Amino acid sequence: MKRSPLQAIEALIKWDENMNIRFQRLLVKRPLPLSFHSDDLGGHLKKVLNPLDLIMIGLGASIGTGIFVITGLASSIAGPGIVLSFIIASICSLFVALCYAELSSMIPLTGSAYSYTYTIFGELFAWIIGWTMMLELTVSISLIASGWSQYLLGIFDALHIPLNSALTHDPMNGGLVNLPAVIIILCMAFMLLQGVRESSRLNAVLVSIKLLILITFFWIGSQIIHVENYFPVLPNGFQGVLTGAGLVIVSFTGFELIASSAEEVKNPQRNLPIGLIGTIVICSFFYIIAGLVLTGILPFSQYANVGSPFEFALSQSGFSHLGGLLAVGIIIGITSGLQVCLYGSSRLVYALSRDGLIPSGLAAVSAKGIPFKATILVGLMSAVFAGFAPLSLIVELLNMGTLIAFIAVAAGVLFMRHKNPDLERHFRCPMVPLVPILAIISDLFLIVSLKTTTLFYFCIWLVIGLMVYGLYGIRQSELAKKFKIDLPYPSTVEIPTPQIHEAV
Hints:
Strand content: under 5%
Structural class: mainly alpha
Shape: globular
């Protein structure tokens, strides 16, 4: 049956209205008042963390694989300019940390950048950030556990204790399963199930020990520095410095996990900014000193393809007898990083589940205030990755996911200052819009410095995430249900447009 021109115009107008409704559905936002009361969202996590606990969480995540492994690789590229790489990365991270501090004082919710994006930009963008962070944290846990396993094997080799290689390597490296990596992940997941207070105490002990080990290394290393190794300062030019900064930026991501603990922090509006900024300052000091000492002990070119630069530097300088002590310290450092990443990943899964974007059963909380199902799921997934999968193809996705989340947070500060300038902020990022803009520009610059293959693999992961959201999350979203938004795609929606976007 042919339509008249008038009917065709009416159908086109109706189609346009429906498309507008669908687009608005994708941008549904969490109203700001809910952001200050986690109980309104079904949260029952216990508030037990103080500023010192937060700084220890940040140091536990940041001072680990980044300083013990990546420093050597970055040094082989940037040379003595690795110090500049760390300075650039620390400045970029400080810009972002100031933005995190403002948003965390306004929106103290578990989920970090995901929760901020949900409140500021809407559900679709929040899902993209949450999906990206989930990859970042899960792969981080697996990589840390694999590194832990390799250092443990090094100790057994030094003690001449043979181990079955089939049980210490993944299938792609000639074994059956990397059992030590699986065991350490499951042990740390079990520890997290005992309670936040208990796990934070263990983390504080582990962080204190590894800081003591680092200080000891700095003192020994300062005695065997050869000044001639500092020349040329920039052997690969400033591009080498920038490439090094792109590699080491992931070493500063511990403050991101601090924001994930918002609902378990006492007085989060005050304590979260202290933990965020304190972590960046302390990490920057240790990283810069580490780069200075390493490149002073040996020529930078010798660190190429070295996975344990600290131990390598000492052994090449006649201090191999200290290798065992250093290996123990590194294992302790990596253990604390593993625990904190498991903590942050489980809280992200909890937040996604509570919002209905993944199965809601994962948001179950135990009598101890622990999201136990989310913790168990993250532990099992990470153990499978670490035990059986070669992760070399997606290692750089860690940096990509981190930088995307950083950009979202900086953009969120700019948007909220424009959209809600009079909203109460317990911490205000200084020099807005300059600081957020610098954060966005610097992060984009570091993204460009990554390999093209990294962007390709990230796009594949993003497409998979959008499919998951389209098939499940968009239909099960708790916030959409509260707004009575019908799916799939109604012809009419009996709800005013402002109610989708504005606070109620």
